[in-house]
Amino acid sequence: MRSYPPGFEENDTLRSEFIRDLTLHVLQSPASHDAGGTPFSGEVPRTLIQYWHDPSDLPSDVRDCIASWDSLADEGFQRRMFDDASAAAYIAERFGTRERAAFESCRHPAMRSDYLRMCVILSEGGLYVDTDDVLVGDGWKDLFGDGRLKVQPLCYDIPTAGMVPTAKIWRADLPTAERIFYVNNNPIAAPVGHPVMRSALARATDRLLGDEPYPAIQATTGPGNLTAALAAHAHDLIAVGAPLDFEILRDWETIAETRWHLSYRKDERNWRYMEAD
């Protein structure tokens, strides 16, 4: 891989270029736990974590999405459904004053969901999925085979204002001009205390408690934040020849599908409306 300067993960262009290089690096490297074949420490617990800010105002179409995951109870999963009140109580119990203040400063349910998932995954581990995702396959079993962090790659095509299909992201001949490469913060599967989650939470907390009055959701708590944390961590591992303690998923769409035509997306509950103001 190319070398990148210190702090490159905070530069939008360099971060995107690194994630593109990283996907190709992962593609060309043999899949293994580490050079010696020893599994990474810890396992991803069978805990399903989800979030809806107001349980008294849960749309029926979102409820149907959530119900699609009910079958995991038969597979030994613990279900953790949070809302604004229970999330605030959880953070107050498990974390310090800075994290409590950061959560309170999240001005939209999407930000609070972003922040809470980092806290729970860091503290307890497990699998987080958004409440607009529907379970469609049993490939989820592969997420729990080792103690690696699992995240999904994304690529945004600027000229068409659309997403590049996941299968094309892995193509070595994919043109990269005017495209943004990053990772999603949905799903996230990780063991307790993964360093990427620790860094992502710390970065989000710093930004939320910083001088910017209205920090952007995507860059502060969302995919941009997780991408920055992952990029810095991956760069450090590769620089010293250490095994990668994360996996970039290639087939999440065979496990779950996002339902885009949901009622809440048409009003202020959709964070994109707020970001457009």
Q: Can you walk me through this structure?
A:
The protein has helices at residues 12-28, 60-67, 84-94, 97-104, 109-124, 166-169, 195-208, 217-220, 223-239, 271-276; strands at 47-51, 78-82, 126-128, 133-135, 149-151, 153-157, 162-163, 179-183, 188-190, 246-248, 256-258. By secondary structure, the chain is α/β, with parallel strands linked by helices. It has one domain: Spore Coat Polysaccharide Biosynthesis Protein SpsA, Chain A (Alpha-Beta Complex), CATH 3.90.550. It has a 4-stranded mixed β-sheet with strand order 2-1-3-9. The chain has a 3-stranded antiparallel β-sheet with strand order 7-6-8. A two-stranded antiparallel sheet has the order 4-11. A hairpin with a 4-residue loop joins β6 (153-157) and β7. The N and C termini lie far apart (39 Å). Mean pLDDT is 91; it is low at 32-38.
Key attributes of the depicted protein:
Spore Coat Polysaccharide Biosynthesis Protein SpsA, Chain A; 11 strands; 14% strand; three-stranded antiparallel sheet; 277 residues; alpha/beta
